[in-house]
Amino acid sequence: MTEIKTYPPAPDFVKNAHIDAATYQSMYEASINDPEGFWSQQAERLTWDKAPTKIKNTTFSHPDVSIKWFEDGELNVAANCVDRHLATRPDQTAIIWESDDPSVSRHITYLELSEQVNKLANVYKSLGIGKGDRIVLYMPMIPEAAYAMLACARIGAVHSIVFAGFSPEALAARVGGCEASLIVTADEAPRGGRSTPLKTNVDKALAICGDVKTLVVERTGADVNMVEGRDHAYHTLMAHASTDCPAEPMNAEDPLFILYTSGSTGAPKGVLHSSGGYLLWAAMTHEIVFDYHEGDIFWCTADVGWVTGHSYIIYGPLANGATTLMFEGVPTWPDVGRFWAVCEKHKVNQFYTAPTAIRALMAHGKEPVEKHDLSSLKVLGTVGEPINPEAWNWYNETVGKGTRPIVDTWWQTETGGHLLTPIPGAIPTKPGSATLPFFGVQPVILDPATGEEVTTTEAEGVLCMKDSWPGQMRSVYGDHDRFVKTYFSDYKGYYFSGDGCRRDADGYYWITGRVDDVINVSGHRMGTAEVESALVAHPAVSEAAVVGFPHDIKGQGIYCYVTLMDGEEYTDELRKELRDWVRKEIGPIASPDHIQWAPGLPKTRSGKIMRRILRKIAENDYGALGDTSTLADPSVVEDLIDNRMNK
Ligand code: 6R9
Hints:
Blueprint (H helix, E strand, L loop, with lengths): L10 H6 L4 H13 L1 H8 L13 E4 L6 E4 L4 E2 L1 H10 L6 E6 L6 E5 H17 L7 E5 L4 H13 L2 E4 L6 H10 L4 E5 L2 E3 L2 E3 L1 H12 L3 E5 L13 E3 H6 L10 E2 L3 E7 L7 E6 L1 H14 L7 E4 L6 H13 L3 E5 L10 H9 L3 E4 L1 H8 L4 H4 L8 E5 L5 H11 L6 E4 L33 E4 L12 E7 L9 E2 L3 H9 L6 E9 L5 E6 L3 E4 L2 E4 H9 L4 E11 L3 E10 L7 H14 L8 E4 L13 H8 L16 H11 L2
Parallel strand pairs: 4-17, 6-7, 6-8, 7-14, 8-11, 11-12, 16-17, 16-18, 18-19, 19-20, 29-30
Antiparallel strand pairs: 1-2, 3-13, 4-5, 9-10, 14-15, 15-23, 21-22, 22-24, 24-25, 26-27, 28-29
Helix pairs in contact: 2-3, 4-5, 4-6, 4-11, 5-6, 7-8, 10-11, 13-15
Keywords: Acetylation, ATP-binding, Ligase, Magnesium, Metal-binding, Nucleotide-binding
Organism: Aquicoccus porphyridii
Protein name: Acetyl-coenzyme A synthetase
């Protein structure tokens, strides 16, 4: 095995950093030994209408799981992200918008942000929306998406963002799932020189889930269908709206947003986040993990449709009064140097992206990076999936010139923000490791066979958390039992992350990937069950089993085994049709990479599909199939291998 190098923080960096090694140690200890004291002090990062006196009231005890932080506190998230900066920085840029078209960008100041948010909040009210109502956002990466989120927060409405790459079918399920009163969308979403017809997709979704009011931003000016009384033009209503809208005082535990995410079973679940604890977590991690300083330009390349966009494009940076960059395009258009051109153009200081993007750009070599002046960069971050050491090294050497700390941040939609991560001035990094816990985070590794904690420093097993942190999700929207069952039932008394993990001799954590039937395709989480149910919804398909397989760029690809109905013919045309079908049912992000015909699937005598075997076949790893003696018909496996090899 090649030796793993350790990269200590550079002395120059440590000098200016918020947190050094000794401070990390003492603060971490305080956060564990005296959570009440620690978090009541940290809560002062936010501006409260009523400061909390009850700090932590949480239990992971099955089945009475209950999570409350700052429960008697009152605040408004929009007031924290906008209003409180108006006295000190009205003319500072809050949002830099870089459009898909490289010649177009805009700067929006905190004062402008305030006016737009307040107007939109008044527009919501005029459409009959109030505290607690749900608003679905299905939007391009444009400043109006930020206004739409913050305007919800201002009046206490709960947003549920649906990534613009999802299909009308997936959108309809999410609109229906939270009984939304309004959908905010745009005519079209330009990306990479192409355009997604968002409003047309909304029309198709409403034909499935029933009519809901819409508010349509004009992004490209494309001609779209507007139904009188149902569809409203954003710019028309905004033109008459007042910039004066008081912020609704909210309890810290009132919901801020719902975000659907995939699990191992059933339909995606609506992860529910709070106002107080979530915002504190987003703000604090944004400042400390990226070592954000006053005046820095921060760029997170995610889409606001994912949790990373929520916490690190909008809520964290704006709560801190930062300048946040919002990018509408893709890393490879108009050329593979786009990320670096944007870093140079806007003098980006912290850059946060996904390993899949790094791998894709790495394939094009150094030249597109070296063409650009990247001297403004101070910290580089990654998120979404394990980063392989080759990609880490390339990021470090080619982008960071070997002098910028890399923060490999492990977290989940459920966690609200970073849980395992280097702190750049404090924690030496190792390529591929998310290193150590953030303040208040108590990771444990459990033996999956016994459910017992592995207490030795070196350990391997499933990653759980022993106690709550303020940014933790509070429930599954409308289904608290599902929350308890999904996260607190397999290992009682712990939060179960769904990830496998190893702890090395230095106590560093190395995520080994999901241990459930969730796959991670280009950093997007997907339940194999979702792809399976899309496939079996096709009239020709009788059965389907979906697994992940290693993919050079995407991390994991989607491998589908499909059994057809009697009398159906296994043809290449049908294969193509099924691929398009899945794209239509879920969205292009769920495009199958391989569809293998499987007249028979390996099943146990009780009828359970043995996915372990299917994963091995997908990986072309036939020597390690393990015990197949419990199969009802072991010959099925040979047929699948023959099929795989002749494909
Ligand atoms: C923020 C986000 C969560 C899953 C998580 C894990 C994987 C995320 C990672 C990572 C290794 C990292 N994951 N960050 N694996 N190293 N730094 O991605 O949320 O979309 O909910 O995905 O992503 O498997 O369980 P989400």
